[in-house]
Write a structure and sequence with these properties.
This protein is mainly alpha-helical and 103 residues long. It has one domain. It is built from 3 helices and 2 strands; from the N terminus they run ββααα. The chain has a two-stranded antiparallel ribbon. The longest helix has 43 residues, at 17-59. 4% of the residues are buried.
């Protein structure tokens, strides 16, 4: 790291590069937190779907092909394939979108 300083004319003070390093670290922390939160919401979405689909399959007649596909996903989120997890992440991102729209 150099001792290069940046003068903010509008604010009238100097910032060195360590300030921007700190900002970048905080941005990285926010990105990591967002990814972790997306995974938690995706897991919740999966668990809700799992509960709903199992109950539905007991209550009404579900086509066999649909039920077979569902049964492949009736397991903990951590045991799903990446492709299956991505379906749940899609719905997790929808939650984020709705939260953003409500702000």
């Amino acid at each position: 790291m150099t001792d290069k300083k940046i003068f903010l004319v509008k604010e009238g003070y100097w910032l060195d590069e360590s300030f921007f390093d700190h900002v970048n670290e905080k941005q990285n922390d926010i990105v990591e937190l967002s990814k972790a939160l997306e995974e938690k919401i995706a897991e919740l979405e999966h668990n809700q779907w799992w509960s709903w689909s199992e109950k539905l399959s007991r209550d009404i007649e579900i086509p066999e092909l649909v039920k077979e596909r569902w049964e492949q996903c009736w397991k903990p989120y951590s045991e799903l394939t990446e492709e299956q997890k991505e379906e749940d992440r899609f719905w997790a991102r929808k939650v984020f979108q709705k939260l953003k729209e409500s702000m």
